[in-house]
Amino acid sequence: MTFWRRVREDIAAAKLRDPAARGSLEIALLYPGLHAIWAHRLWHALWRRRVRFVARAGSQVTRWLTGIEIHPGATIGRRFFIDHGMGVVIGETAEIGDDVMLYHGVTLGGRMLDGG
Asked: What SS3 state is found at 19?
């Protein structure tokens, strides 16, 4: 799927799930949940290519800008939408499917030191 097709799909998902959404331009420019997801895609690609320090550093900058922390190792499906995302934390072990919506204050991920 092309980059721009994915962006349009994300904006459409936000319109579908947020009754306060007024238009595509507003969503693209003013929704920090989407900005966090878009940045995560970049950091996740670097993580998978084993450029891990840069990916982690970038994810921290995104957290500082959006208030949403997504570990670059987390797996996130399509049409994921974070509404009012301040305080959302998605850990490295989190696996999120397609068509998922989260609100503020949600933490996802494991608490054990052993993988699995």
From this structure: coil
For 88-102, the pLDDT digits (tens) are 999 999 999 999 999
87/90 Cα distance (integer angstroms): 10
The CA–CA distances, whole Å, from 23 to 30, 41, 101 equal 11, 23, 19
Give the integer Cα–Cα distance in Å for 97 and 89. Answer: 16
Residue owning tokens 């939408």? 81
- Closest listed residue to residue 10, CA positions, set 93, 75, 32: 32
Q: Find all residues with CB under 8 Å of 5, minimum gap 6, and list them.
A: none
**Residue 100 C-beta-side C-alpha neighbours within 13 Å:** 14
How far is residue 116's CA from residue 110's CA, in Å, rounded to a whole number?
9
In this prediction the pTM is: 0.90
